[in-house]
Amino acid sequence: MPLVMITLAISIVFCGLYLLLARRLQILDQPNERSSHTLPTPHGGGVAMLTAFAAGLAIGHVMGVAWEGPYLILAGARYC
């Protein structure tokens, strides 16, 4: 369970940093007639979450966690 909390904390930090960076660099989705939002909204936050997931896997590996198939498939690893 501590690994889940560590990964959650990393995700919160990475997403917050990405939000600041996206606003500063104007990486924004401009609303149009098909949009559900009315103000420019940062997009690409999935990159921060994926990075946090990869960091959680790496931290787990360092902690000696033996990952099973579904986690490795999610991470894009191949079976030998």
Any low-confidence stretches, pLDDT <50, length ≥5?
none
Q: How many alpha or pi helices?
A: 3
Identify the strand order in the major beta sheet: 1-2
Radius of gyration: 16 Å
Largest sheet: 2 strands, antiparallel
Order of helices and strands: HEEHH
Task: Kindly name the structural category.
Answer: mainly alpha
Large-scale geometry? elongated
Distance between the termini: 29 Å
Average of per-residue pLDDT values: 85
Number of strands: 2
What is the beta-strand fraction?
5-15%
In percent, how helical is the residue content? 55-70%
Structure description:
This protein is mainly alpha-helical. Helices cover 59% and strands 5% of the residues. It has three helices and two strands; from the N terminus they run αββαα. The chain has a two-stranded antiparallel ribbon. Helix 1 packs antiparallel against helix 2. The mean pLDDT is 85.
Which characteristics define this entry?
80 residues, mainly alpha, two-stranded antiparallel sheet, 3 helices, 2 strands, 5% strand
Can you summarize this structure?
By secondary structure, the chain is mainly alpha-helical. The protein contains 3 helices and 2 strands.
Itemize the secondary structure elements and their pairings.
Layout (H helix, E strand, L loop, with lengths): L1 H23 L3 E2 L11 E2 L3 H17 L6 H7 L5
Antiparallel strand pairs: 1-2
Helix pairs in contact: 1-2
